[in-house]
Amino acid sequence: MVSRQIVFALVTFFHDFFTAVWIGGLVVLGTTVLPSAVKVFGKGPETKKLMDAIQKRLSVFIYVSIVGLWVTGLLLSQRAPGFQGLFHFGTPYATVLSLKHILVLLMVAVTVIRSLVLGRLSGQPAAQVEKLKMALLFLNMALGVLVLLLSGFSAALAGGLPAG
């Protein structure tokens, strides 16, 4: 294996790893941790305290993943012959990739709003803020699943179909 292939393999690995951390964290949080916390503690202050602690710890991994995805995405785009630049819609591949990037930007915005903006709201009823945080969690989860779907389509359009 030549060094370029090794670098490409490592960049691809890290891109996939950062994706798994971010979207996987959202899915686990929304489908397992939150329902379990509500089942054990109810919708009271214990659940809020637990979810805030998990979000604080998880947000470090999420922000590292966002930066890592940006860097590895830039590196991967250099190797993709169908890449025409951000937000180009000239080919089916470019269109799918642009839609994926739009959804990722929405995910970043939701992440920032959920962790930084809503975490600092004061004067609003706590129940309302928590309800909004949970709605944004599920929105980001859905956006993440759509990003994965579009990733599959972009790989297929780039010629990533297995032989046979």
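(the above was protein one; protein two follows)
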Amino acid sequence: MSIETGAVRESGATRLRGIRACVFDAYGTLFDFASATARCDDVPADLRASLSTLWRDKQLQYTWLRSLQGDYADFWQVTSDALDFALDSLGIANAPRHARLMDLYMTLSAFPEVAGVLRQLRQAGFVTAILSNGTPAMLTAAVHAAGIGDLLDAVLSADAVGKYKTHPRVYEYGLRQLGLAAREVSFQSSNAWDAYAASAFGMRVVWCNRYGQREERLPGRPDHVIRSLDELPALLEHAR
């Protein structure tokens, strides 16, 4: 597998067969989490990249740490707490800036290829869905802002089970809502930890490695690695 070039894991690998649904992670996969800070004029330009990275890293850490503590708070609260930490760490904390960034997070920009890929998948007969840590309100706002609501059959939130990915109950919930077996689902995530966990759970997985990450040393292994979702349709046998 060539992570650096985004090549398919196995040279000449056959298409994924028996897939009925394509399920997507949201943040970093469909929606660009960096677009909130990029669009915020209230953040000094030279700090926007650092703020975005620190905010995202802390956001994920808090989901895992709260899971270990058994002290669940929804993703909106986790995102707000992580932003507080990031702004304070960079010495730019104030209430209006925090509020503006949280508002922008509700309407993150979709990556350019997203709508076209979802349309292709629907035309090919696949069920399309989101399975995300985001709250229902966060996901509804992002989907509406991106104009992709009519291209999705389901938008599923981990909030329904009070757990965060990579907990198996989140993946179980997605399958239960779709009425499908794990091997009938192709799961797409840009987060390596999420891709590996979904694979270990039993789903077929296409890791959209947008950020040039290294392979994880965790259970599971993606079936394919791509750099952009526009490479996905060619990896799937049509559902009909």
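Reviewer note on protein two: Helices lie at 35-38, 48-69, 75-89, 95-105, 114-123, 136-146, 168-178, 192-201.
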